[in-house]
C-alpha cells in the first residue's frame, strides 16, 4: 500500500465556451489555480465536473490534461463512474495508462442498482487496474446509497479499493460507522458535499475532503488549521466560508462556475446541461455580497 492520500482534493469543473464546447485552455488555468492554492490533490471529471454531459473522448481528454498539467506535483484522481462495468473499466484503464494516481467511481448511475451489480462493478475495476480505487458513496438520484457494512466488505475483499468518498447524509455518522467496521485495508475516508461538514468529518477521522475547487484556497486554510490542531481558527475560517457553500448548495455547478469566472480562472460560466447558466440577477447580487465578505481569504489571484 502507498502513503495515505490526505488533505484537500478538489473537484475540477469542466470549462466550456459560450457555445458549450470543451475549453481546454480554461481547464489548464483552473488546474494551475488549484495548485497555487495549495491543494493536496486534484480530481475529475466527477459530479462537479458535469461528467454525465461529457463524451467518452472528452473524459479522456480531461484526464490527460489533468495529469499532464499537474505533472506529479500532487496526486491525480480520475473519475470513471459509468453506466456499466465495461464502460468504467475502459476509462479506468486509460487513467492508469496516462499515469493517474487513482480512480474514483460511484456505482452505475441513472437508477439504483442492487448490491450484486455493485460488487461485480468494483471487482471488474479492481481486476482492470493496479492503482487505488476510491469508492464514491452518494445518495440518489445520481448515486446508489451503500450502507457501512456493505462498504466495509467491498474494502476488505476487493483489491486496492482502499478509499471511500462518503457523501450520504448524514456523512459524519456514515464515516464513523465505516471506520468502525472496515478492516486494515481501508486507507482512508474523505468527505464531500462541498466541504460543508468538514469539521465534523475531521473529528470523526476523515483523511480529507473533496469539495469543488472555486474556493480551494479557503478550504486549504481550514484544513491546515485542523492539521495544526488549531480548531478555533478552523471553525472561524469555516464559518466565514459556509454562507458561500450553503448558497452554492442551492445552485450547484452554475454557482461554482460563476465564482471561478469572477475569480478570473475560467472564461465562461456555461453549464452544458442548462445550455447556458440559469443564475438570475438576484442570484448574482447575493453572490456579490458573499464574495465581498469572503474576499480577505481569497488568496490566489487569476493565473490567466
Question: What would you note in describing this structure?
Answer:
The structure is a single chain. The protein is an alpha/beta fold. Helix content is 46%, strand content 11%. It has helices at 24-37, 56-70, 85-97, 115-128, 148-157, 171-181, 198-203, 216-227, 231-251, 253-262, 281-294; strands spanning 7-11, 41-44, 76-79, 102-105, 133-138, 163-167, 188-191, 208-209. An eight-stranded parallel barrel has the order 1-2-3-4-5-6-7-8, surrounded by six helices. The radius of gyration is 18 Å and the shape is globular. The protein starts with 6 loop residues before the first strand and ends in a 10-residue tail after the last helix. 50% of the residues are buried.
Kindly summarize this structure in a few lines.
By secondary structure, the chain is an alpha/beta fold.
Q: State the end-to-end CA separation.
A: 38 Å
What spatial order of strands do you see in the largest sheet?
A: 1-2-3-4-5-6-7-8
Give the overall silhouette.
globular
**Biggest sheet statistics:** 8 strands, parallel, barrel
Element pattern in H and E? EHEHEHEHEHEHEHEHHHH
Portion of residues in beta strands equals: 5-15%
Q: How many E-type strands? A: 8
Provide the CATH top-level class: Alpha Beta
CATH superfamily: Aldolase class I
What is the count of helical runs? 11
Query: Average pLDDT value?
Result: 96
Question: Uncertain spans, ≥5 residues at pLDDT below 50?
Answer: none
**Residue share in helices?**
40-55%
Tell me the domain tally. Answer: 1
Cα Rg: 18 Å
- Structural class, by secondary structure, is alpha/beta
Amino acid at each position: 500500500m502507498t502513503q495515505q492520500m490526505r488533505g484537500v482534493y478538489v473537484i475540477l469543473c469542466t470549462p466550456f465556451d459560450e457555445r458549450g464546447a470543451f475549453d481546454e485552455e480554461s481547464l489548464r488555468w483552473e488546474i494551475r489555480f488549484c495548485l497555487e492554492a495549495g491543494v493536496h490533490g486534484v480530481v475529475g471529471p466527477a459530479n462537479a465536473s458535469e461528467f454525465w454531459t461529457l463524451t467518452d473522448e472528452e473524459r479522456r481528454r480531461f484526464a490527460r490534461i489533468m495529469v499532464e498539467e499537474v505533472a506529479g506535483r500532487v496526486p491525480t484522481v480520475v473519475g470513471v463512474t459509468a453506466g456499466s462495468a465495461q464502460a468504467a473499466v475502459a476509462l479506468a484503464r486509460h487513467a492508469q495508462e496516462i499515469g493517474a494516481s487513482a480512480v474514483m467511481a460511484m456505482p452505475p448511475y441513472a437508477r439504483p442498482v442492487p448490491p450484486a451489480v455493485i460488487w461485480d462493478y468494483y471487482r471488474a475495476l479492481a481486476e482492470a487496474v493496479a492503482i487505488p480505487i476510491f469508492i464514491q458513496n452518494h445518495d440518489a438520484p445520481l448515486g446508489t446509497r451503500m450502507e457501512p457494512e456493505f462498504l466495509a466488505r467491498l474494502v476488505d475483499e476487493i483489491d486496492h479499493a482502499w478509499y471511500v468518498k462518503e457523501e450520504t447524509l448524514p456523512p459524519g455518522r456514515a464515516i464513523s460507522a465505516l471506520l468502525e467496521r472496515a478492516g486494515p485495508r481501508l486507507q482512508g475516508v474523505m468527505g464531500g458535499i462541498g466541504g460543508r461538514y468538514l469539521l465534523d468529518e475531521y473529528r470523526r477521522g476523515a483523511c480529507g475532503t473533496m469539495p469543488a475547487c472555486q474556493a480551494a484556497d479557503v478550504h486549504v486554510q481550514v484544513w491546515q488549521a485542523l492539521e495544526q490542531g488549531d480548531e478555533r481558527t478552523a471553525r472561524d475560517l469555516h464559518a466565514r466560508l459556509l454562507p458561500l457553500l450553503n448558497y452554492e448548495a442551492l445552485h450547484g455547478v452554475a454557482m461554482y462556475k460563476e465564482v471561478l469566472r469572477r475569480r478570473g480562472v475560467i472564461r465562461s460560466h456555461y453549464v452544458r446541461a442548462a445550455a447556458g447558466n440559469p443564475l438570475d440577477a438576484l442570484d448574482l447580487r447575493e453572490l456579490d455580497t458573499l464574495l465581498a465578505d469572503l474576499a480577505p481569504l481569497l488568496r490566489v489571484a487569476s493565473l490567466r
